[in-house]
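Hi team,

As requested, here is the filled-out complex form for the NAP run. I kept the field names the same as last time so the parser does not choke. Let me know if anything looks off before we queue the next batch.

— J.
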Amino acid sequence: MTLRYAVFGHPVAHSLSPRIHAAFARQQNLAMTYEAIDAGPEDFAKALAAFAAAGGQGANITLPHKQAALALCTSSSERAQRAGVANTLVRREGGWHGDNTDGIGLVRDLSERHALDLRERRTLLLGAGGAAHGVAPALIDAGIGELFIVNRTPDRADALADAIGEPGRVHTRYWDDLGNLGTFDFIVNATSAGREQGEMSLPMAMITSRTLAVDLSYGEAAIPFLAWARSAGCTQAIDGLGMLVEQAAESFNLWHGMRPDTAEIYAELSGRAVALATGD
Ligand code: NAP
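And here is what came back:
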């Protein structure tokens, strides 16, 4: 029987996951199918159940279903529980097992592909949605210094800080206070502002030439934040394409027990990155 995998989202036509997983499968000589399944919030649970009934063995989950997916799992990894959202499901006897590969995907991209040392970096995380929940614990585990979380809706930043549970190291601040927080060694944009063509007001004084600026988005959605960072003097500005490929590789490994080489597909996609729609 051919192994069957899918990404669920709404919309999902933009997703690069089918292309990335097809490349991994070719590389590993694995016969599998990987399709994109568009299901609205009211249809998601039914669509996932139908996929399982038809032999689906694993799934990636993207917006807006990451939280709902975790709730539908019968078991989940510690990193999915810490994130509160699942982006990877593995079919096990008795139900779905939920995991979250976003955090490890970001850390691998930065520390392995870009050879960056994240330790002790004074860090600002912009956003407190699903992606921020996925990456914050992994950044803490990677040894960053203090973490400041700032979100347009402050309550969500507080909830994320509470979930991390390290009050001495993790702080929340209001967006309006960004100008008073000093400089950062590492700024992560985990908002969807670029994707929604929303405006973000960010003070340039937060950046020095040594600041690492990372946008989890890629393609056109990453342009405004990365352009802002460069114009403020940042010399290292990185988009989320490498994270996308690395989180996919980690999902692939969870399903098949094989870690694919990501260099080739990353090079292929980054060659035309600006033209790509964003998503995960
Ligand atoms: P989400 O759960 O919908 O959260 C969106 C976040 O963006 C919230 O914190 C929201 O603030 C904030 N936001 C939206 N518009 C804003 C604006 N105009 N100004 C300031 N803040 C704004 O989305 P998500 O899943 O976290 O995804 C966030 C981004 O990460 C997306 O662009 C997604 O494509 C990207 N991502 C990339 C990867 C990858 O592998 N590279 C993986 C996951 C996600 P409020 O709370 O105030 O609404």
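Two things worth flagging: The mean pLDDT is 95. The chain is about 35% helix and 20% strand.

Thanks,
J.
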